[in-house]
Amino acid sequence: MLPEAVPESRRPSFHRRPPRRFVPATPDSESSPDESVAPADPLRWLKLATTIVSQATRERPADALLRQHLRDTHGLSKEDTAQISQAVFGYFRWRGWIDPTLKLESQVRSAMELVAEFAMNPQTFRDADLLARTLPPWVNDAVPVSAAWLRAIQAEPTLWLRVKPGRAKALAQVLGHTRNSALPDALAYAGEENLFRQPEFHAGDFEIQDIASQAVSMVCSPKPGETWWDACAGEGGKLLHLSAQMQGKGMIWASDRAEWRLKKLKLRTARAQCFNYRAALWDGGPKLPTKTRFDGVLLDAPCSGLGTWQRNPHARWTMTPEDVRELATVQAQLLNHVAGSLKPGGKLVYSVCTLTRAETEEVVAAFTAAHPEFTPLPVLNPFHTNEPPRAQLSLWPQHTGGGGMFISAWKRNG
Ligand SMILES: C[S@@+](CC[C@H](N)C(=O)[O-])C[C@H]1O[C@@H](n2cnc3c(N)ncnc32)[C@H](O)[C@@H]1O
Fold first, then answer.
1. Phi-psi region for residue 248, left (φ > 0), alpha (ψ -120 to 50) or beta?
2. Closest-CA residue to 85 (of 110, 104, 66, 99)
3. How does pLDDT run across 312-367, given as a tens digit for each residue?
4. 159-208 CATH fold
5. Which pTM was predicted?
6. Which of 7, 221, 301, 334 has its CA 20 to 30 A from that of 19?
7. Residue of 210, 232, 277, 308 with the most ligand 1 atoms within 8 Å of its CB, for mutation
């Protein structure tokens, strides 16, 4: 079974903390993975991080385990939480550099040293080593691997906010520690507050959304009053952005095959005061949730997620080439199934947060060949709006400053 993608709204690392040089204070002893750590133990964050690393598997991904442990462990300070997150993700990010014969706790400590060293002296890491050690070898056959990409995904990720149109300046003043970006409503946040507790978050003034995801809705560019279908809406990250672009006018159908995701979507839309949508279950099969004909359809398809490997490094070690093949088949089927729901002149947008050839250009070429009723629509790169539109966009993390994303579009003829 394919691993579940983890939506960015459930990412655990809300607390930003610059990497620090980590100097261990205890002997190099093996700690048995033990969840009942003593509150007074100054190294309990290291023990808990080691426990999480030891338990992470394909079926129990590190980020889900991390959330569970952080929720279930009482008395963790904000500092502990940040260090545990950094240690767990750092371990999976730097796993290829760490001596696997060391005891696991020592491996986690080595990872923290590498995190700090890379943050301070990235030039001491040679391109050749990055190319040899950062990812499993199969990835070289699936995507064009560059040192620039690897340098981007070895760094600590930026936390991106999507702000209500026109509110970026005001919100930046309230929150502090923010930086503007190439996208008008995207702010990078480098502060240490728990953003989910901010009144502005509860007022719907901003969402936590990766900058590459924000680019997808910008390519959709729906107009107020139109009718759209967000076919794989998940927890609604892009739905909220589409709705904001439509100024709440018109209608968006939001479907997903996971009921629990649609439940979360409803909570998010209520908080963001997004009302112009209708949620429906859809298993991805030929029977569509509605007979409506749409001005636009966004298929933000399930994928191998290589574009998220900076903030979700455990997935680098659990994804397989077989998964990629299986996902490419699912993507092709989903595209075929949604195609008939577009009005003549309607816009179909396909996006995946991955860059494997099989899930991007090959899926697109097969769809174009099989659907003469659709014409490929050149896409304007939201990060470089002065450049001519391209047949399709491959946005790499080193270009976005966030995740990686592939986007293409077609217009239904007629
Ligand atoms: C990339 S995620 C969508 C993220 C979402 N658009 C957002 O912006 O938050 C892909 C979604 O596709 C859903 N999915 C996976 N397989 C599916 C299928 N066969 N049919 C319909 N939805 C599917 C997953 O449950 C997941 O929510």
1. left
2. 66
3. 999 999 999 999 999 999 999 999 999 999 999 999 999 999 999 999 999 999 99
4. Alpha-Beta Plaits (3.30.70)
5. 0.91
6. 7
7. 232
